[in-house]
Design goal:
240 residues, alpha+beta, Alpha-Beta Plaits, two-stranded antiparallel sheet, 10 strands, 19% strand, globular
Length: 240
């Protein structure tokens, strides 16, 4: 049970992530996220040499930063950080300036169909009802460990007690003091996360063969010969 004054935090064990995107889908359904927009995104990184090629996954969302750049950038004070640690956007005060978008180092803020700034808020409406965020409840691989940091028995606290020394925040050089930490993510994964606009699948870096071809030596061409009979066989029932 959360304490009287909860401080919500999240830790992700990305070594367990299988890249199923269930967290992204659950978030969209729960929060009515517009088409082609995601509050929760899963980036991937392929590395190694054939046949030892590996793919790592990195789920990302709003980091609920203690020193949130988006809050500072908003000209209308539409963004506020509450005592429970969650950074929330007041849609009635948003004026479509989108300065919060470009200020976010984690590409966690986008606009809905009405051009109102939108992002993850740890499913605050579910927390008020005593439930976990949709992504946490849905993940089949138990990647998400969420809870009240002030409660020593919360899933978050128990995970950090066991693995705290192995966790780190994303982009620590930004000095945003995130409330989301990660265990097992490769540092190279952070390069996948753009600064600014919320993840858009239509602008996402798609690693097609064309884009990858320049990174690898071209294979030797193989010329295939087709053997053709000098005299085609006579069809059944035909004249010789």
């Amino acid at each position: 049970m959360p304490t009287a004054n909860p401080r919500w935090k999240l830790a992700l064990d990305v070594e367990r992530c299988i890249g199923c995107h269930a967290c992204s889908v659950a978030c969209k359904v729960e929060n009515n996220v517009p088409l082609a927009r995601f509050r929760t995104k899963v980036y991937y990184w392929e590395h190694g040499k054939f046949p030892d090629v590996k793919r790592n996954f990195l789920p990302t969302l709003c980091m609920q930063c203690e020193d949130a750049p988006c809050l500072k950038a908003c000209p209308n004070d539409a963004i506020e950080r509450f005592s429970d640690g969650i950074v929330r956007i007041d849609p009635d005060r948003c004026d479509h300036a989108a300065k919060c978008e470009s200020a976010c180092p984690y590409a966690a803020i986008g606009c809905d169909d009405n051009d109102i700034a939108d992002k993850c808020d740890f499913c605050s409406h579910r927390l008020d009802a005593g439930m976990e965020p949709a992504c946490v409840e849905t993940c089949p691989a138990e990647v998400f460990h969420f809870g009240d940091a002030n409660d020593p028995q919360s899933p978050y606290s128990l995970f950090m007690k066991k693995h705290g020394k192995e966790t780190a925040v994303l982009k620590p050089e930004e000095n945003t003091k995130p409330s989301v930490s990660y265990r097992g993510h490769a540092k190279e994964m952070e390069k996948k996360i753009p600064k600014g606009k919320l993840h858009d699948p239509f602008s996402y870096e798609i690693e097609t063969w064309t884009s990858l071809e320049s990174q690898f030596p071209k294979p030797k061409r193989v010329i295939w010969a087709k053997v053709v009979d000098a005299k085609p066989s006579t069809p059944t029932g035909g004249k010789s």
